Amino acid sequence: MDASSSREAHVSRHSGFDSRLAARWIRACAEEVSTHRDHLTQLDAAIGDADHGVNMDRGFSAALSGLDAIEGVPPGQVLQQTGATLMFRVGGAAGPLYGSAFRRAGEHLGDDASVGLEELLAALREGLAAMQSLGAAVEGDKTIIDAWLPAIGSLERELRAGADPDVVVRRAREAAEAGATATTAMQARKGRASYLGPRSVGHQDPGATSTALLFRALERAVNDP
Q1: Rounded to an integer, what distance in angstroms lies between the CA atom of residue 39 and that of residue 28?
Q2: 3-state SS, residue 187
Q3: Most buried by CB count within 10 Å: which residue of 9, 15, 25, 134?
Q4: Cα dist. 3→20, 28, 185 in Å?
Q5: Cα 110 vs. chain centroid, distance in angstroms?
């Protein structure tokens, strides 16, 4: 890569959350979910219906195929379209939850061509609120929330501390992964896993794990040229 291309890549990574970065995030989400599909399904086999990995892979594959048709539109519309696809193509509880999160986040971003990380944080908070309104889960219930909530908490702390964008998204990914790992010791209080009662303890929640993958994908999208 020559000096000019390197500068352009740097600007692309740090100038804002635009349509290209939104599309990179969705592509990275699809890749992460595809790579870890079997692992997600194994986690779900222990406390759920053994279909989380397959369902998520199908949904993000569909979202990926639709990106070309919306190339160049505002990032909010990219997220809204992704949310609509996930809502109808991902089975089980995950489809409505992730679908509503992406749709609400996209609606919050509106038609702006590019937004900063502060606005992205606000959009992700809106996504969290949408999931909690739909599923009524709180932190500690052994769900998606246990990874999503610490991730956006970390985003806010790092932004307030003035950290560089690459640090902000790395710490968010680390917080999401730690949150997912912490679900292993929890007893499920929501969803299919809650039917197992104490037997749900000792198994990592598949939804929290897939959420950690989405924040890993965000880190990749911000740092990849």
Answers
A1: 17
A2: coil
A3: 25
A4: 21, 26, 49
A5: 19
In the predicted model, is pLDDT for residue 9 greater than 70?
Answer: no
pLDDT band of 15, cuts 50, 70, 90: low
Superfamily of domain 17-223: DhaL domain (1.25.40.340)
Q: Kindly provide the b/e burial profile for residues 98-111, where b requires at least 16 CB atoms within 10 angstroms of the residue's own CB.
A: bbbbbbbbbbbbee
Query: Domain locations in the chain?
Result: 17-223
pTM over 0.70: yes
DSSP β-bridge partners for residue 114: 18
CA dist 196 and 225 (Å) reads: 45
Specify the amino acid at residue 137. A
Residue 114, classed as helix, strand or coil, is: strand
Q: Which two tokens stand for residue 149?
A: 């909530």
